[in-house]
Amino acid sequence: MNGRNLPRQPKKRPSQPSSSQPALPRTTSSLPRGGPVSPAAAAQLQRTIGNQAIGQVNRMAGETAVVQRWDLAKHKAEKAAEYEQLFALIEGSTPLIRNTYMADLAKLTSSPENLMKILKSMTGESKASKLRDLLQKIGGEAKLIALAKGLGVWDAAIINEVVSLEPNPDLILEIQDVVKGNVGLLLTLLRNTSGEKKGQDLKDALNLAGGFNKLLAVKSFSSDISVLLMLLRKTGSGDELAKFVPLVHDGQTLVDFLALTDAASALVLMGQHAKASLAELKRALIDAKLNAAGPKADCTQIRFTQVNCSSAGEGYSVHDNIERLRKQPHWDIPAKAIRVFLKTPEMDAWGPMTFEQYTGDPKNLENGQLYTLDNRRLAAYRRAGRTQIPKPQIVGNDVVSREVYKFSTKNKGVDIAIN
To answer: Fewest CB within 10 angstroms: 56, 293, 295, 316, which?
Structure first.
């Protein structure tokens, strides 16, 4: 049978529609141009060409009649009673239209019931249980609505992630006003922040920096808010911290460096030695601190790592050395220089270490202070009343990390007991 002899079927041909169905435009050029599309016109278009065809029209460059934002505020003002119809229209449309306009629709109502319907619509039936869990977690619909409004997000799954990162909804409500509803950036900051008090650290950092924009200006140092907070506490403000941006971008290294000196002095030193690394400048600062008294150092500025030490050594005793140091003011213990290091925050990550019956932890030491690994000799000089000790030897983390078991002090190393 030849195709030309087949009877025509108008209901399948848009050029010859049935009497009960409006004609489908041959091209999108006949669609309305300019200005928002009314809900009534959108509904008519849906009945005419179906949701799938609307999606195709939406994606056609230059033909933006359907994808343009509906003037929902104007529609509500003119036809307030049609809110439910408008909700039904958007809910029944394609995912593209639904996700685009549902948040706009939410802004037109203060009804908790309407907002809850919108949240459920945006998350889908499969996530209804997560929505119920979220309501219990944050304390009811009122806070959920406040969070959704402040974050500009009507997806319970996204709100749930924010709350899981900072389980204090009241704190989120305070933070979201400052981050201007930028939920993507808020999530990035919370995800990358270490420690338990993510939201509190972010709030404190915002306050110290002087606002969200100033915090973003120094974000190149780290995505970890706890690191930025340490830097802001050392420099005092976002403007002061921003002065370091052209000089160094490693936030944790800068934290360790600023533990040695004040921010203003650090900027001067970095300006004088532009090509020096922070590690080189760090060593120079420690040397300067130890050289302040000439060939000897002030032993009162060096702390102990151990909670106690034994008096007996190999061929000597601490008590004998104390006695001789007192009686002979120009005599020094004939041994190598005591080893010292600067305690920095990064050492806390090493964790506790046990060796035989000894256990130490870096958290027992105070950041920014000089400590010794040779406690008995330092104890002899201090107990003898000496203030000067032969210039110590600075050791690196490779040496210090092997003797963490010594970090047993209970008073930050201010004193030590001699057994």
So the answer is: 295
